[in-house]
Amino acid sequence: MRAGRRSRDAIRVLLRAVGEDPERDGLLKTPQRVARMYEELLAGYSQNLDTLLNDALFDVDYDEGELITVAGISFSSLCEHHMLPFTGTAHVAYLPKGKVVGLSKIPRVVDMFARRLQVQERLTGQIADALMQALDPRGVMVMVEGAHSCCSLRGVKKQGVNMVTTARRGAFREQGELREAFYRQIGR
User: Fold this and answer.
1) Which of 49, 55, 110, 144 could bridge across to 124 with cysteines, CB 3.0–4.6 Å?
2) C-alpha span between 113 and 168 (Å, rounded)
């Protein structure tokens, strides 16, 4: 998908609204660049879980009581309230029931949801729910740590503030020892 004319026109309107001249030499190609940037940053809308996983589920003899954790998944997203970036790290664990997913697929799931207009709380839950749906595991736990530009650049203007959200599904809701094992695996 190429950056559309409507997006470019809207960016020209925005430039005029802030007092700029979109025909000025330095701004001539800005509408195209900004439209392509948003297309890239919001690419998650054009993805779906089935295509993303691409049959990368494998039968593996792995004890059903053992965790699989993918830690330190970096992401960037756009806050739906201000369309400013927030960035951070996601940690994802699941308890398989006979099937495991290819390692690269979990970061792709994180990116699919992060590349949409988001709030961190929804992002965390969407990752957990998608993995529960796709993998049918005994449980999923997701922790997302994010630094929000809307908190540091505007409003309260506080640097270094991180938000931490969690989503627990299945066995992780009921079993505190599983949550503790997850926190140990991610170094918390």
Assistant:
1) 144
2) 17
Domain 5-41 shares a fold with domain 49-185:
no
Catalytic residue among 118, 120, 126, 151: 120
Q: What CATH number belongs to 49-185?
A: 3.30.1130.10
**Per annotation, catalytic residue among 23, 81, 133, 180:** 81
151 is a catalytic site residue: no
- Active-site position among 39, 82, 145, 185: 82
**80 carries an active-site annotation:** yes
Q: Cα Rg for the chain, rounded, in angstroms? A: 20
Task: Parse the chain into domains and list their residue ranges.
Answer: 5-41, 49-185
Q: Is 82 a catalytic residue?
A: yes
pLDDT tens figures, 132-170: 999 999 999 999 999 999 888 988 998 988 999 999 999
Cβ neighbours for 26, distance < 8 A, ≥ 6 positions apart? none
Question: What digits encode the pLDDT tens for the residues 114-141?
Answer: 999 999 999 999 999 999 999 999 999 9
* Residue 120 designated active-site: yes
Distance of alpha carbon 22 from alpha carbon 27, whole angstroms = 5
Give the H or E element holding residue 180: helix 176-185
Indicate the SS3 state at residue 29: coil
In CATH terms, the superfamily for domain 5-41 is: GTP cyclohydrolase I, N-terminal domain (1.10.286.10)
